Amino acid sequence: MTTDSALNLTLVRDRNDAAVLRAVRARGESGISRVQLAAGTGLTAQAISKITARLLGEGLLTEAGRLAGATGKPRTLLRLVPDARCALGAHLGRSELRLVRVDLGGAVTGRSAAPADLRGEAGPVLDRLAAMVRELTAGLDPAQVLGLGVACPGPLDARDGVLHEVTGMPHWRGLRLREEMAARTGLPVLVEKDTTAGVLSRLGADHRAYVFLGEGLGAGLVLGGRVHRGARTNAGEFGHQCVDRAGPVCACGARGCLEAVCLAALRAGRPADAAQALGVGVANLVRLLDIEEVLLGGDALLDSADLFESAIRAELAARVPDPTWQPVTLTRAPRLAVPLGAAGLALGRVFG
Ligand SMILES: [Zn+2]
């Protein structure tokens, strides 16, 4: 699966290099031969030969082992060199900064966290994040570091890396986050909405959603195998669907948003009610978009994962007309899904 090319600062020479790297990555430890690469990518043997020579020269691939064929000479296997490059992913949470460093294979090779308060000025928070980036890249060859993905609450314009009027973050309005972090770190920076980063944290079904309940509620979407950002990169404001016109007032100013209903129930010590309300929202989402997999994430949800999962399952069973024909897989996302997805954006510089 690829992200929108407009959001990538592509490093590899062309799409074909990226396609070869993705095919090698998909085979993992078992490796892949040049003949298999040609078959898998649709490229000619000559093109594969040139591209793999270049990627070997750049240290991204290595020859490791041979595949004994039934006939003819054994074929050399190619594998990714995981530590040839790394990428960083940050989650600007409303009360905490989380940062991960991943290798080319997506494995976490470093992590850090620090308290933050996004209600205040942006400058000190960004300075702290830049210091964390310096700590996690200390001693590395700068050419090894592909870049920094930064995920934060929306609404924001992911193409320009500019924040809009984010609820509860008045000092961040209009902030050119991508430019600010690029200036502080010297790295290529990509900005993404937290929930969209979450849905990109792992490969999964072609029609899937990442539903995040933490200090807010939102959803990231992959539809038809591609991330869905919407016309202004602001799709997935799942938490602000109105479910009760007479419900509690939401942080966004409207009344009865699903986010407000869930958070009010949690604050009142009624997690079962929050879980049931979220289940209704998830069933709405499944019916609207024919989603086949829902990734459950966010600390508030994962802290009571069994309760939320069973309530969502019950609402799906009650509200989706034919659950056997339209089954939905519920998967628990890792706690670090958002920074992992953000790091994946920076890995996109080589994988496309
Ligand atoms: Zn709202």
Give the topology, please.
Layout: H1 15-27, E1 32-33, H2 34-41, H3 45-57, E2 61-67, E3 75-80, E4 86-92, E5 96-103, E6 108-115, H4 122-137, E7 145-152, E8 156-157, E9 162-163, H5 177-185, E10 189-193, H6 194-199, E11 208-213, E12 217-223, E13 226-228, H7 258-267, H8 271-289, E14 293-297, H9 299-302, H10 305-319, E15 329-332, H11 337-351
Parallel strand pairs: 4-7, 7-10, 11-14, 14-15
Antiparallel strand pairs: 1-3, 2-3, 4-5, 5-6, 8-9, 11-12, 12-13
The protein binds zinc ion.
Please characterize this protein's 3D structure.
With 352 residues, the chain is an alpha/beta fold. It has 3 domains: 5-80, Arc Repressor Mutant, subunit A, CATH 1.10.10.10; 85-198 and 338-351, Nucleotidyltransferase, domain 5; 202-333, ATPase, nucleotide binding domain (Nucleotidyltransferase, domain 5, 2-Layer Sandwich). The protein contains 11 helices and 15 strands. It has helices at residues 15-27, 34-41, 45-57, 122-137, 177-185, 194-199, 258-267, 271-289, 299-302, 305-319, 337-351, and strands at 32-33, 61-67, 75-80, 86-92, 96-103, 108-115, 145-152, 156-157, 162-163, 189-193, 208-213, 217-223, 226-228, 293-297, 329-332. The strands form 4 sheets. The protein has a 5-stranded mixed beta sheet with strand order 6-5-4-7-10, sandwiched between helices. Helix 4 (122-137) packs across helix 5 (177-185) and helix 8 crosses helix 10. The relative contact order is 0.14. Residues 1-8 have low confidence and may be disordered. Bound molecules: zinc ion (ZN). Zinc ion binds at residues 240, 250, 252, 254, 257, 259-260. Zinc ion (ZN) binds at residues 240, 250, 252, 254, 257, 259-260.
